[in-house]
Every structure is written in structure tokens, then in C-alpha cells.
TrEMBL record:
It comes from the Eukaryota. Residues 1-150 form the Rho-GAP domain. It comes from Equus caballus. One of its GO terms (biological process) is signal transduction. Residues 193-243 are annotated as: Disordered. Residues 215-232 have a biased composition (Polar residues). PROSITE patterns: RHOGAP. This is Rac GTPase activating protein 1. Residues 201-214 have a biased composition (Low complexity). InterPro entries: Rho_GTPase_activation_prot (IPR008936), RhoGAP_dom (IPR000198).
């Protein structure tokens, strides 16, 4: 049986992605994913946007909090955003499965420290303790965003993806270097949510956002132009593929 260490070494040695369906220990796969995220040169949500995400998650008005979260996601580098989208869709499925016994709150506690982390590489102990309480709130809010929203970032034509410039993280995983541009492969990273954020929102802001997404965004896994049946992919980090 492959443990986390053996599975990690297998990923580093071989050129192709190991068949994870053959791995009996699901905890080893989860630990490997967290190990990968933890050892990126900077958190998936980046140092620069750490405070932005935390403040967005702590807005007491739900509609304004959701709108601020959309804005923060839109400011992420493309590879970070696409990888986050893939991860959120997967974790939403995990939360919905009765077999996993992991609800959104539990998943947020598990992945908060690795996805959100801190605003600096080496925070002092006081900041670390403060962040530990705030990190799960960010992941909970991200998981509350509709699957239609996350799916739009996975609907990218493969031929339009720029060649990857590979960099290495401290754990020897390879990740694509994201160009220093804030432009989506689908056009400017400007969505209806961003426009709504620019003006004072009413209590129905999140409903308006979700309504817009539902009308304009293909549902993930549908028979329309889905990422799965057309062989499309986003500009993801080279993270393990989970079934």
C-alpha cells in the first residue's frame, strides 16, 4: 500500500500522473494534496491577496461578502485561479457525498491553513494564531460560491493556453509560472459580479450574481460544452488529479 511519502516520490519520479484510482488509502492522496499546496512558494491565494480574501470573508452582510469574494478571485493570477476553481468544485463534491462525512465546515478547517495560509512567508506566532481562526472562514465562503461560477474557469480552449514556464517549489513539485497579467484566456477578468461590486449593493446582490451566472455559464458536468467531454482544461498548477 502506498503511503503519502511513497506516493509523493512516485509523482516526482515518473513523467506521467500515477493512476490514483489504484491507491487504496484516500488519506494518503489527501495528505499529498495538502503537502503540495503547503509547499508552494506562496499560498494558492497569494501573499498579496491574503488580507483581501480574509476581509471579504468577514464582511457581515452576506451579499457584500460574496461580491467582495468574487472580486478577490478575479484578481488572482490565472494559474492560481484555475487551480482554485478545480479544487473548489472537487471539495464541493466531497462535501455533498455522504460517504466522506466531511461537511463544508470540516473541509474549511482542513484546507484553510494550506489554501489561505498567511500574508507573509514567516509570520510571527501572534499573527499565526490570529490567521488560524480566520482561514476557515475564507474557505467556507469560497465553497459557498456556486459550481457554475467555478466551472467557467475550466472552459478554456486548450490551443489558446500559453506554453508553461516551469518553476519549482520547495518540495520539488513543478508549477506553471503565471504571466504577470490580469487577463483571462476567456477575455478580461471582468464579470458581472465585479460590476455589481462597484455600486452599493442591495440585499439581493448575491441572488442577482447567481442568476447571471446560471444564465450565462455552462453547468459543470452537463452535456453542453463541458471541460470533461471536450477535453478542455484550464491553466492549472500541476497538482494531483483526484477522482
Amino acid at each position: 500500500m502506498l503511503g503519502t511519502k511513497e506516493l509523493k516520490e512516485k509523482f516526482l519520479r515518473v513523467k506521467t500522473v500515477p493512476l490514483l484510482s489504484k491507491v487504496d488509502d484516500i488519506h494518503a492522496i489527501c495528505s499529498l494534496l495538502k503537502d503540495f499546496l503547503r509547499n508552494l512558494k506562496e499560498p494558492l491565494l497569494t501573499f498579496r491577496l491574503n488580507k483581501t480574501f480574509m476581509e471579504a470573508a468577514e464582511i457581515t452582510d452576506e451579499d457584500n461578502s460574496i461580491a467582495a469574494m468574487y472580486q478577490a478571485v478575479g484578481e488572482l493570477p490565472q494559474a492560481n485561479r484555475d487551480t482554485l476553481a478545480f479544487l473548489m468544485i472537487h471539495l464541493q463534491r466531497v462535501a455533498q457525498s455522504p460517504n466522506t462525512k466531511m461537511d463544508v465546515a470540516n473541509l474549511a478547517k482542513v484546507f484553510g491553513p494550506t489554501i489561505v495560509a498567511h500574508a507573509v512567508p514567516n509570520p510571527d506566532p501572534v499573527i499565526m494564531l490570529q490567521d488560524i481562526k480566520r482561514q476557515p472562514k475564507v474557505v467556507e465562503r469560497l465553497l459557498s460560491l456556486p459550481v457554475e461560477y467555478w466551472s467557467q474557469f475550466m472552459m478554456v480552449e486548450q490551443e489558446n493556453i500559453d506554453p508553461m514556464h516551469v518553476i519549482e517549489n520547495s518540495n520539488a513539485f513543478s508549477t506553471p509560472q503565471t504571466p504577470d497579467i490580469k487577463v483571462s484566456l476567456l477575455g478580461p477578468v471582468t464579470t458581472p459580479e465585479h460590476q455589481l461590486l462597484k455600486t452599493p449593493s442591495s440585499s439581493s446582490l448575491s441572488q442577482r450574481v447567481r442568476s447571471t451566472l446560471t444564465k450565462n455559464t455552462p453547468r459543470f458536468g452537463s452535456k453542453s460544452k463541458s471541460a470533461t467531454n471536450l477535453g478542455r482544461q484550464g491553466n492549472f498548477f500541476a497538482s494531483p488529479m483526484l477522482k
